[in-house]
């Protein structure tokens, strides 16, 4: 698989140079919007008779390879930024051209099929010469050569886009320094959309938890997208195109075995089921690797390693071409649930002695103080020194459990007015975390999110026939999705002793009754927050390219989206544990039945007889006293302290609260002007206005449940000035652009004034709460450069890089960083003028490929160098969170037989074992991945 006989042009689906596509359903049956029915029906009815007449009149093709392939390509051609001829040609690159082939199809084929081994990315960039947008692209063959299938590895080759480290739910894709992942909330759309084979993945974990194998190409289109189809995105789209069925039999197998007991096995097979009528492709991957760090907890030693990989994925594709003017493509894939230990790898550091203003940090409430408490020092085999030295010593850390699957059906009709395409798709995803507290003690376990997500999308597009003075596309898009997530924590027998402040611990650790109160206050409490989000969206989109003169093109795009979103949320207590008698009487609207007492433990006069009896039972259980009133003031204070600890574990409990639905129209669009000076140089200017839906959320709680706070929609105004160059007789592609993008109402965690909480507190002091909100203004500006040079014998050089400034122009309500933790009023600071987190100013990737004949074999060497400058990894931009610049080298060296059937390669990632850091806080850091190397054997069968 690493040395294909063909290397295809970009965008088999025809749309990745311009924009997004499809989303999906909830995990239960949902109503279909009458608006959607009317829109979709209105598009289908005028064409139904023409489709029926054309399809029934046509005889089955006797030369299906050349004629069906363009249909297959256009059946996926969604929001194409390429001319229709290029989109068709990309599909033709996958099939044989026999005698009797359509001459027009043959001529297009010559534009994109690449013979040779590593000149494919040059051809891909060349095909974008007239696309007035900033685009980077990498071929599947280049990724395969370096054994790269993870989302982080794939994106590392594309300028100004990256995967911010995390698990499939908390990690996210950043473009031009901006990332809005589900770490901020499941009810927020991603700012950077991922589109796989024409289907928009509206929920970020659908894309970040997958491997990408049997890939034709991966591209990123920067700037707002949506006027040419799919789901709209406010910052850009990553488009991933898999290899498609052909009528030529082929089977490729690749196996890589390497360090950390790693095994990556990939296989793809396909060909005709019925000649010229039905073709299939099946691709399979098994990816397993132990992590570098083993859990040293004695009962789990040798059974957990961090960060490991355990993924199995399969994809089946079926192409039907019953008529020359019609094709159908079915794609179904499945990744069964598997366990990976991605959370819990942290190197701890001593907490600094002083806050930023010189105030002394109370170390008694820091890990060093807590682990010095007699409760924990009784465990002689573990100390604070072990806490600092061992990054993984967890008694109950569970794995991240993920799985996903889906199917998409693309129908394509070639009609006299143009190409009519329908794409129907369904996807779902499961995520579960079971986090530990990071110590071998029984403090917390089974913490984190459990998520069930599903989406259904339907898109209908009509694309004009090529060759007219005006090219256009118009269509309708529909999405419905459901996200059911539960964030929870289970507390253990050591939780009370850990969570207690130094003052609380001193009160409770004086005698056996106090210690039992401290233990029971939180032991086995299991509480969480359940949230159900539903989204329904309908959109009309249209784009026109007017070829004013041969060199001058004007493009105009418009999209109108209607978004309807709802939320239902509740605070849930699933298990009261051992300390139910220490409950408060109620928390908000949830009645718990505990007794009422003062801050010192004195029994209040508003207790019922049942509550007084409960207080007496507490006195008897813990102090063997005849009644609660018989307790001494010191004993009552111990009860009050235990009740306070319990209340902190119970948190906010409330009955299901429904937020005010978000219901709005989002207009977006774009305008571009390009001028082909000659066949080599095409400058362009593009303005793109994008938008991301607002949302509703439950923030604080009152005695009648939760209160709703709505996020405003995020809008983007992007200006781009660029030039695409095809130089030195087509051996050098040099594309460059400068950009300015102003994001308004950027969706991110902020502090906001909470009127309901302020009224409830009734202290005269405004109450601010942390939650998702809107940052008034973020500005992005920079330069992007994409080059590919193949003018030297046996050599290809590729560079993809950017200089980027991502600045908070106005962010008045950010949470304080850890070094200002002693300042509680106000709880927020301004970050105006500061660089966004996880936004390095310089990022580039350099690839060099050398393919030299050696006798009857081909020696090939591939080198990849990925670099990024320093950045701050903390959302509050802590001065302790700066991550230094680093560069990683990946290598591949191998020999291929003369027939190209067999290849043996040595592959290495992070070849020089650069010990880099991915995140820092003021008292911890997270390491990057270590050096890895392996042997890859690939076999091709006709």
List the helices and strands and how they pair.
Elements: H1 34-57, H2 64-75, H3 84-92, H4 103-112, H5 120-126, E1 135-139, H6 140-145, H7 151-155, E2 161-164, E3 172-175, E4 192-196, E5 199-201, H8 205-208, E6 215-222, E7 236-242, E8 250-258, E9 262-274, E10 278-289, E11 293-294, E12 305-306, E13 309-323, E14 326-340, E15 347-348, H9 367-370, H10 374-377, H11 384-389, E16 400-415, E17 418-432, E18 444-464, E19 470-491, H12 495-499, H13 502-508, H14 512-522, E20 526-547, E21 552-575, E22 586-587, E23 590-591, H15 609-623, H16 633-650, E24 654-658, E25 662-675, E26 681-692, E27 695-702, E28 705-711, E29 714-727, E30 732-753, H17 755-761, E31 768-789, E32 795-810, E33 814-815, E34 828-829, E35 842-854, E36 857-868, E37 871-872, E38 882-883, E39 886-897, E40 902-909, E41 917-921, E42 924-927, E43 932-941
Parallel strand pairs: 4-7
Antiparallel strand pairs: 1-6, 2-3, 4-5, 6-7, 8-9, 8-43, 9-10, 10-13, 11-12, 13-14, 14-16, 15-42, 16-17, 17-18, 18-19, 19-20, 20-21, 21-24, 21-25, 22-23, 25-26, 26-29, 27-28, 29-30, 30-31, 31-32, 32-35, 33-34, 35-36, 36-39, 37-38, 39-40, 40-43, 41-42
Helix pairs in contact: 2-3, 3-4, 14-16
Shape: globular
Q: How many strands in all?
A: 43
Contiguous helical run count: 17
User: How far from one another are the termini?
Assistant: 12 Å
Tell me which oligomeric state these chains represent: single chain
Instruction: Please mark out the parts with pLDDT under 50 across 5 or more consecutive residues, or reply none.
Output: 1-118
Over all CA atoms, what is the radius of gyration? 30 Å
Fraction of residues in H or I helices? 10-25%
């Amino acid at each position: 698989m690493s040395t294909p006989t063909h290397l295809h042009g970009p965008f088999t689906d025809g749309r990745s140079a311009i924009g997004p596509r499809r989303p999906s359903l909830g995990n239960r049956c949902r109503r279909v919007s009458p608006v959607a029915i009317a829109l979709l029906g209105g598009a289908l009815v005028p064409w139904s008779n023409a489709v029926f007449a054309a399809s029934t009149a046509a005889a089955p093709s006797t030369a299906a390879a050349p004629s069906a392939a363009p249909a297959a390509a256009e059946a996926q051609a969604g929001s194409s930024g390429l001319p229709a001829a290029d989109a068709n040609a990309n599909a033709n690159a996958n099939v044989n051209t026999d005698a009797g082939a359509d001459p027009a199809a043959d001529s297009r084929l010559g534009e994109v099929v690449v013979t040779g081994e590593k000149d494919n990315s040059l051809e891909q960039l060349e095909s974008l010469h007239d696309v007035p947008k900033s685009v980077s692209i990498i071929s599947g063959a280049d990724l395969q050569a370096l054994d790269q299938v993870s989302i982080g590895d794939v994106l590392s080759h594309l300028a100004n886009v990256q995967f911010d480290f995390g698990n499939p739910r908390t990690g996210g894709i950043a473009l031009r320094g901006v990332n809005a992942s589900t770490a901020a909330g499941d009810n927020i759309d991603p700012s950077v959309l991922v589109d796989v084979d024409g289907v928009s993945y509206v929920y970020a974990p659908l894309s970040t938890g997958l491997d990408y194998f049997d890939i034709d190409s991966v591209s990123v289109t920067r700037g707002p997208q949506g006027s040419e189809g799919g789901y709209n995105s406010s910052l850009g789209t990553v488009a991933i195109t898999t290899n498609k069925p052909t009528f030529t039999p082929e089977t490729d197998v690749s196996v890589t075995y390497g360090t950390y007991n790693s095994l990556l096995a990939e296989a793809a097979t396909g060909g005709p089921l019925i000649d010229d009528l039905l073709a299939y492709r099946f691709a399979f991957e098994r990816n397993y690797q132990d992590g570098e760090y083993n859990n040293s907890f004695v009962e789990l030693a040798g059974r957990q390693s961090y960060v490991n990989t355990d993924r199995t994925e399969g994809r089946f594709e079926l192409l039907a071409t019953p008529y020359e003017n019609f094709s159908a493509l079915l794609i179904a894939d499945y990744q069964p649930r598997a366990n990976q230990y991605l959370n819990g790898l942290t190197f701890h550091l001593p907490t600094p002695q002083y806050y930023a203003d010189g105030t002394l940090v109370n170390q008694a409430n820091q890990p060093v103080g807590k682990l010095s408490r007699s409760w924990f020092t009784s465990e002689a085999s573990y100390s604070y020194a072990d806490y600092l030295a061992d990054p993984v010593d967890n008694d109950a850390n569970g794995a991240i459990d993920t799985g996903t699957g889906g199917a998409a059906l693309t129908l394509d009709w070639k009609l006299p007015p143009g190409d009519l395409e329908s794409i129907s798709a369904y996807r779902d995803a499961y995520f579960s975390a079971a986090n530990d507290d990071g110590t071998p003690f029984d403090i917390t376990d089974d913490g984190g999110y459990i998520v069930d997500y599903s989406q259904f999308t339907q898109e209908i597009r009509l694309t004009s026939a090529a060759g007219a003075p005006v090219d256009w596309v118009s269509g309708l898009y529909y999405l419905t999705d459901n996200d059911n997530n539960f964030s929870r924590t289970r507390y253990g027998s050591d939780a009370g002793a850990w969570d207690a402040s130094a003052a609380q611990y001193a009160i409770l650790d004086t005698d056996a009754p106090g210690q039992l109160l401290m233990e029971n206050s939180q032991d086995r409490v299991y509480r969480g927050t359940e949230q159900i989000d539903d989204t329904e969206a309908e959109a009309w989109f249209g784009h026109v390219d007017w070829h004013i003169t041969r060199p001058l093109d004007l493009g105009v795009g418009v999209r109108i989206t209607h978004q309807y979103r709802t939320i239902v949320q509740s605070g849930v207590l699933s298990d009261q544990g051992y300390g139910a008698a220490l409950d408060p009487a109620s928390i908000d609207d949830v009645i718990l039945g505990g007794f009422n007492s003062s801050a010192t433990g004195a029994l209040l006069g508003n207790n019922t007889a049942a509550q007084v009896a409960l207080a007496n039972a507490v006195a008897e259980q813990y102090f063997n006293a005849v009644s609660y009133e018989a307790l001494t003031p010191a004993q009552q204070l111990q009860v009050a302290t235990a009740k306070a600890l319990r209340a902190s574990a119970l948190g906010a409990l409330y009955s299901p609260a429904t937020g005010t639905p978000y219901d709005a129209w989002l207009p977006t669009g774009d305008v571009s002007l390009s001028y082909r000076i000659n066949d080599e140089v095409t400058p362009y200017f593009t303005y793109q206005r994008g938008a991301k839906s607002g949302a509703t959320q439950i923030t604080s709680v009152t005695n009648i449940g939760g209160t709703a706070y709505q996020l405003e929609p995020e809008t983007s105004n992007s200006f781009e000035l660029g030039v695409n160059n095809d130089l030195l007789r087509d051996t050098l592609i040099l594309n460059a652009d400068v950009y300015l993008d102003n994001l308004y109402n950027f969706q991110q965690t902020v502090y906001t004034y909470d009127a309901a909480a302020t009224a409830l507190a009734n202290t005269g002091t405004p109450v601010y709460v942390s939650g998702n909100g809107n940052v008034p203004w973020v500005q992005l500006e920079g330069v992007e450069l994409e080059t590919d040079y193949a003018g030297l014998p046996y050599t290809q050089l590729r560079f993809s890089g950017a200089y980027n400034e991502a600045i908070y122009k106005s962010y008045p309500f950010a949470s304080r960083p850890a070094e200002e933790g002693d300042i509680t009023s106000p709880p927020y600071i301004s970050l105006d003028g500061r660089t966004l987190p996880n936004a390095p100013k310089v990022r580039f990737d350099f690839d060099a490929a050398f393919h030299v004949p050696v006798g009857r074999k081909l020696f090939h060497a591939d080198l990849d160098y990925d670099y990024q400058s320093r950045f701050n990894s903390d959302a509050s931009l802590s001065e302790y969170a700066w991550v230094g610049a680093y560069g990683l080298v990946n290598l591949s060296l191998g020999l291929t037989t003369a027939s190209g059937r067999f290849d043996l390669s040595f592959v290495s990632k992070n070849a020089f074992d650069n010990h880099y850091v991915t995140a820092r806080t003021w008292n911890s850091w997270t390491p990057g991945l270590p050096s890895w190397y392996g042997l890859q054997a690939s076999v091709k069968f006709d």
